[in-house]
Specification:
The protein is of the alpha/beta class. The chain contains 15 helices and 18 strands.
Length: about 575
């Protein structure tokens, strides 16, 4: 260990070239405005909710089954919201808990509730047989698997597992207490030079076994980041973990940008085809030409690139540079290319993106905190201008160091930006689509995940809320409201009374005062793959390593304790 100290010091000067783009933002509390007019509006909405049913903007629940507010136990709506898409207060009591009404096979599960299908919300059922969805309908009783299935009355909302199209998962052991911007920046090359941010990078690289570090916890770092996503209803993530393609990257949330994505086999994960390619730094000509070659061969079906992150001319210039970095010019202006951020872009760039069928990943929270001092909501990508041109948009949290802690937080922040900056231009169903079917299409995995349809893999989330306003309930939800999260038909997380849905070993966790189960350990695979680690072991290992790193005195700042799995009472 003593010999390692001087080596570590020499390496620190090289870490400014860290291969991840990392960004941050001060933690921002979304608060409700208390104008007197809202009292009047609240009374009006209560009348509408309980007298007239679901509003049109929430995609009214289908008449099949006829959902009523009593199904959610009188949840109290959305805190007197006056807008079908605004934050409208926090979600009220979710009513009756989900309950297992028939105990059957754990590999055949029938969920009853308000189902978010591709076209509308219906009152119905979703039947899972093994890894796949075999029925989505008002009733699945006629399906052979239904006869022996475990039946769950969810008393809630059944939706596709959410997909995070952009995250830096290894940094999610940190939060804003570890680093916050000192000012508003113009582009992504400025804030990465701050000494305290550089110290965070040092700590991350130490934990991740980089630059001569004596420890290697990249499995634990990735798993913890995946857990932060899973407990908030995210079942797939582009996390940019490195080194790539480790088996331990798929024991929890589906690691969609790795060969261990689970799309070709069950746990323990097999090595699967990986058609998603991501660049967290602008590529050189050789790398860019290779992407174009991969487009031709079909090896890359989706290419994500950080581009135009910032608000100045330097960030804007990256769009033209993307055109000329390849030989021949322009091959990355493709319908397989997805721009991550595009904050600096305007009409000219959006027109070109639309012409070539390019997509966009939007991360408003980190945009605002880095380029708007945490308060200027205008300092984010002009999403209405993007959508007007027919460009597909996915919503993603970026990372918990400064973006949102999870996709549910990012949904609420995006809703606030839309309400206050763009006059409530996006309804709740549109926002929910940005974390389900839209990212599935952008990542070219919409044939297997992203919607609740027969034949797709059973990545399913159940949450509590007002079933007459299902989309609004999703936008308003927190991890506490997530009643069940399944990946490949396996129940990995949920309310404690649903633990019998998992046939293996699970752990008890408390999420904002609600007892939950969390199934992390997998009794298979080689010891080096760390599949058998429990949640407690992962947390303990990371906590100890952070404390030991602080004790080395390599930085004037300390990074223990570990950032919490969730933050209760947040925006």
């Amino acid at each position: 260990m003593a010999l390692w100290f001087p080596y570590w010091s020499l390496q620190k000067s090289l870490w400014k070239f860290e291969t991840d783009f990392r960004r941050s933002a001060r933690y921002y509390e979304v608060v409700q405005r208390g104008r007197f007019l809202w009292w009047v509006g609240g009374l009006f909405v209560l009348f509408v909710l309980f007298g007239c049913g679901t509003t049109a903007d929430d995609k009214a629940t289908s008449s099949a089954g006829g959902a009523t507010s009593s199904a959610s136990g009188g949840s109290g709506g959305m805190g007197g919201a006056t807008s079908t898409t605004g934050t409208g207060g926090t979600i009220g009591p979710s009513g009756p808990d989900a309950v297992i009404v028939t105990s059957g096979a754990t590999d055949k599960i029938l969920l009853r509730g308000t189902v978010l299908t591709p076209g509308a919300a219906i009152v119905g059922e979703v039947l899972v047989d093994g890894e796949f969805i075999v029925c989505v309908a008002p009733s699945c009783a006629s399906e052979p698997a239904a006869a022996t299935a475990t039946v769950v009355e969810t008393n809630g909302i059944i939706m596709p597992g959410m997909i995070d199209a952009h995250n830096h998962v290894l940094f999610n052991v940190f939060d804003e207490s570890d680093w916050s911007p000192s000012k508003a920046y113009g582009n992504h090359n400025q804030w990465t030079n701050e000494p305290r941010y550089d110290a965070v990078v040092d700590a991350k690289q130490y934990l991740n076994g980089e630059s001569g570090s004596p420890i290697n916890l990249n499995c634990e770092l990735n798993k913890y980041g995946e857990l932060k996503a899973l407990v908030a209803g995210t079942t797939a993530m582009v996390g940019s973990a490195n080194p790539g393609n480790k088996i331990c990257y798929r024991t929890l949330t589906r690691t969609i940008d790795q060969t261990a994505n689970g799309l070709c086999g069950t746990v323990p994960p097999q090595s699967c085809t990986d058609n998603v390619q991501a660049n967290t730094l602008f590529p050189n000509s050789t790398s860019a030409d290779k992407v174009c070659s991969n487009f031709v061969t079909g090896k890359t079906r989706a290419y994500l690139i950080h581009l135009g992150e910032g608000v100045d001319a330097s960030a804007l210039a990256e769009f033209d540079k993307l055109n000329t970095v390849t030989d021949p010019d322009g091959c990355l202006y493709s319908d397989r290319t997805v721009v991550v951020h595009g904050t600096a872009f305007g009409a000219t760039e959006f027109d070109i993106m639309a012409q070539h069928g390019m997509g966009l990943v939007w991360s408003p929270r980190s945009n605002v905190f880095l380029y708007g001092s945490g308060t200027d909501l205008s300092q984010t990508t002009d999403v209405p201008a993007v959508r007007t041109r027919g460009i597909e948009v996915a919503l993603a949290p970026d990372w918990s160091l400064g973006g949102s802690k999870n996709l549910l937080e990012e949904l609420r922040f995006a809703d606030r930006v839309d309400d206050e900056m763009w006059g409530d231009s996006m309804d709740a169903a549109t926002l929910v689509g940005m974390v389900t079917d839209a990212p599935a299409r952008l990542l070219a995995v919409n044939d297997v995940i992203g919607t609740l349809e027969v034949g797709k893999r059973a990545d399913i989330v159940v949450l509590g809320g007002d079933v007459t306003l299902p989309y609004r309930s999703v936008v308003a939800a927190t991890p506490r409201e997530i009643r069940l999260a399944m990946i490949d038909g396996v129940a990995l997380y949920g309310d404690d009374q649903l633990q019998p849905l998992h046939s293996g070993t699970c752990e008890a966790v408390d999420i904002c005062g609600r007892a939950k189960f969390l199934c992390v350990a997998v009794a298979a695979g080689a010891a080096k793959d760390k599949l058998s680690q429990s949640y407690d072991e992962i947390v303990s290992t990371l906590q100890t390593a952070l404390s030991e790193y602080d004790g080395l005195g390599l930085s004037q700042w300390s990074f223990a304790p570990l950032a919490p799995l969730v933050e209760c009472g947040g925006p």
